Amino acid sequence: MKYFSMLIKPASSLCNLKCKYCFYHDVASNRETYCYDVLSDETIENIVNKTVGYFKEPAQISFAFQGGEPTCAGIEVFKKFINQVNEVKKDFHDIHYSIQTNGTLINDEWIELFKEHHFLVGVSLDGYQSNHDLVREDRNNQGTYDRIMNTIEQLKKNGIDFNILTVLTSSLSNHAKELYKFYQEHDLSYIQLIPCLSDFNHESEYGLKPKEFFNFYNEFFDLWFEEYRKGIYRSVTFFDNIIPMFAGIPPQQCGAMGFCSMQFVAESNGDVYPCDFYVLDQYKIGNINQNTIVELAKSKITQEFIQEKRVLSNQCNSCPYNKMCRGNCKRMSGVYFDLEYCGIKEFLEAKEKQIVAIAQTL
Ligand SMILES: C[S@@+](CC[C@H](N)C(=O)[O-])C[C@H]1O[C@@H](n2cnc3c(N)ncnc32)[C@H](O)[C@@H]1O
Ligand code: SF4
Ligand code: SF4
């Protein structure tokens, strides 16, 4: 079985919120064109024909919609995309859709679409209200917590698969207990905690530091483990990735593989980039309206991007966890380690006994 995935930005960097740490706002500000037009019919056709149409044998193909705020493109764009897929796809194609959304524009029509086409929905929710509303404001400086909790209710009521994306900022890292309690109280079981990245050109006050990473996970893990021992499993991306590695199972997440891979990130005008963190002019590989996916995968820029040297910590040379961690994502490395200290290493040293015990049961 072949696998292929593409991340598409139907509304480019357009968004109805102005979250204080938004990395895509920073990425888009560092290129010549901040925002491209909404995905056109031509680009939809080319994306679908050149991906789904390329596979002449069984293949699992995943389309992930993201942004900016993908729902700002309007629901018709999504319907056209899905119709085009349905025209091109054969029985041997297994198509998956997912979306990452700020959750503020989701109405009954979106819910129907997600339900009908089995979307996995990633909803950005930065935990309890006072933290969420502090960092995730709309254009009128209003917090968005209530609207998002309402969307989550709708997703639950309609049996739609969803996970929670929480940005772990410097300040939130001091509140592991409150955050864990919040997930418990709201019965949120699929959690992706994303360490907050600083901007390309300066350290933001929200950016997570390696010691904060350790302090947070040191406490958060204990709370998680206490539940785990009682047979309650809350899926937390970092644990889901790191624990199986102690059982010799290869990592799932790009950052944990020790090298970068080609992610096929398509901006709304069809320009393709290797990774969501690098949607910058100098990393543009080509355009799906002019190139095939083979040309894009084999291009010089793609190969250079994959092989680009990553900065490691002095700690890495003699680190017993080298095989488990592999230096991590090159864009994210600053939140995990600096030259002299590594938060992942301190975490693994502190929790190795428990982690190994779980890994032995896998
Ligand atoms: C750029 S947003 C695009 C999708 C959608 N607008 C949303 O907010 O969910 C994708 C994810 O990146 C997260 N994110 C934004 N800025 C970040 C940063 N500086 N560091 C880490 N994650 C960040 C968002 O919270 C969201 O979960
Ligand atoms: S909703 Fe998403 S794209 Fe919009 S500002 Fe917030 S993180 Fe950025
Ligand atoms: S855990 Fe830290 S020190 Fe060890 S290999 Fe990974 S990044 Fe390097």
From TrEMBL:
GO molecular function, one term: iron-sulfur cluster binding
Cofactor(s) this protein cannot do without: [4Fe-4S] cluster
Keyword Iron in record: yes
UniProt cross-references to Pfam families, sorted A to Z: Radical_SAM, SPASM
InterPro entries named in the record: 4Fe4S-binding_SPASM_dom, Aldolase_TIM, Anaerobic_Cys-type_sulfatase-m, Elp3/MiaA/NifB-like_rSAM, rSAM, rSAM_sf, Sulphatase_maturase_rSAM
Keyword DNA-binding: no
Stored SMART domains: Elp3
Superkingdom, natural source: Bacteria
Domain called Radical SAM core: residue spans: 1-234
SUPFAM superfamilies, A to Z: Radical SAM enzymes (SSF102114)
Keywords associated with the record: Iron, Iron-sulfur, Metal-binding, S-adenosyl-L-methionine
Protein family membership: Belongs to the radical SAM superfamily. Anaerobic sulfatase-maturating enzyme family.
This protein's name: Radical SAM core domain-containing protein
Native source organism of the sequence: Anaerorhabdus furcosa
Lineage, highest ranks first: Bacteria, Bacillati, Bacillota, Erysipelotrichia, Erysipelotrichales
